[in-house]
Structure formats: structure tokens, C-alpha cells
Amino acid sequence: MVTKPNAILFDLDGTLLETAKDLGNALNHVLETMQRPLVSYEEYRNIASNGSKGMLELGFGDELKSLDFEDLRQQFFTHYENNICVDTVFFEGIETLLNELNQKSIPWGIVTNKPEYLTLKLVEFFPLLKECNVIISGDSLPERKPHPKPLLYAQEQLKIQFPNTWYVGDAQRDIEAAHAANMTSVVAEYGYLPSIQESHKWLADIHIQHPLDLLAFL
After folding, report:
1. Which helix (H) or strand (E) segment is 110 a member of?
2. Bridge partner list, 18
3. Could you give phi then psi for residue 142, rounded to 5 degrees?
């Protein structure tokens, strides 16, 4: 039995926002410039949480080892930054969930491994996300998830006297970070998971198949 939260932190890509298509567009732009075959949404969707490295590894395979990775990575990020919210949308139910948290006066925030300049640029397109209480990005601190420090630092910023914080994410590193931070861990199974079966090996406290499933625990 889990205790109801007095704060909830969320991962961004694959948890709050469906960003895979814009990340895939950036990958395919790089592949096109290198005259390589493009990758479909079905192929890259569940790789999207692994960032530029995971996406480029998918697109180039073993050939990546013989190429200038940093140059390709920069091409990827440049295209993504310039086209950061073409196909990105909220996952169905997220807006209702966040509005419900606001109505219940449950503070919430974002902890992502996405670089800060991209995180803040993306959030500008979604006014509801700007209502969050804290945003910690992948370069806000020296440590990144799965290290617990970003989650703990975000919790500190919420200034809750006796915090009982939940962390919701769609990657193994999210669950590992939540465990290390002594927070209730929630797997967003609608996100960019390798498989539902694989996610059960992470030993999360709660599994949700849809964002609104979280409301049942509140």
C-alpha cells in the first residue's frame, strides 16, 4: 500500500510530452544529409528516451563508430532545437491530470535529462507546463538521472516540510533514481518503454497504463 503524495515530479519526454516524432525528425534529417535510409516512427518511438546517442545508434548502427559522433550529434541537436515543437503534443490525459493536481493543491514539477536550453524552449509551447513548481534539467546539476540528486534537489525547491514525493517516468533510470531518492516510483507504461514486460523488472511501486490512472491513487 502506497501513501498518498504531497508532491509529484515527472519526467518530460515520454511521460508528459509525446516528443518522439520531433526527435525522429531530427534523426531522419541527419540520416538524409548522410544519404542513409530513414527510420520509421515505429522503429524509433521506444528509443526516444535514450536521447541523441540512442537515436543516432539506431540510425547508423555499427557504422556510427567510424563516423564523427560529435558532429552528427550537433547536427541532430541543431535541427531539433529549430523544430522542437512541430509534432510534439501532450500525451492524452496529461492536461486533465495536471489540472487535477492544481485543483488539489498538490505541487508538481519536472525532472528531465534533457539539456536546459531545450527543456525551457519546449516548455514555452505548453502554458500548463509553465505552471509547475520546479524544473530540473539534465545539466542543472553535475549529476543526472539515474543519480538521485536531481530528484532530491527538485524536492528541496518545493519546500515541503514532510515530503512524500512520487516520481513518474518511463525509463529504467527514472525508477532507479526514485528508489535511490526514497521516493515512490511510478512507471508510465504508455511512454517509451522497451516493453511492458521489461518494465516489471524495474520493481516500481506503481504501474500506470494511462496518465489518468494516477488519479486513482490520489
Report:
1. strand 108-111
2. 89
3. -65, -30
Give which of 188, 195, 193, 199 is closest to 94, Cα–Cα. Answer: 188
Residues, the chain: 218
Domain boundaries, given as residue ranges, for the chain = 7-18+88-217, 20-82
Percent of the chain predicted with pLDDT > 90: 96
Q: Kindly tell me if the per-residue pLDDT of 1 is higher than 80.
A: no
pLDDT of residue 194: 87
How far apart (Å, rounded) are the C-alpha atoms in residues 80 and 86?
10
User: 191-200 burial, b for 16+ CB within 10 Å, e for fewer?
Assistant: bbbeeeeebe
Core vs surface per residue 17-55: b (16+ CB within 10 A) or e: bbbbbbbbbbbbbbbeeeeeeebeeeebbbbbbbbbebb
Span 73-90, pLDDT tens digits: 999 999 999 999 999 999
Q: Which three cell numbers stand for residue 57?
A: 545508434
Indicate yes or no: pTM above 0.90: yes
Peptide bond into 146 cis (omega under 30): yes
Identity (one letter) of the amino acid at 192? Y
The fold of the 7-18+88-217 domain, in CATH, is Rossmann fold (3.40.50)
Q: Strand, helix or coil at 192?
A: coil
Q: Which residues are catalytic?
A: 11
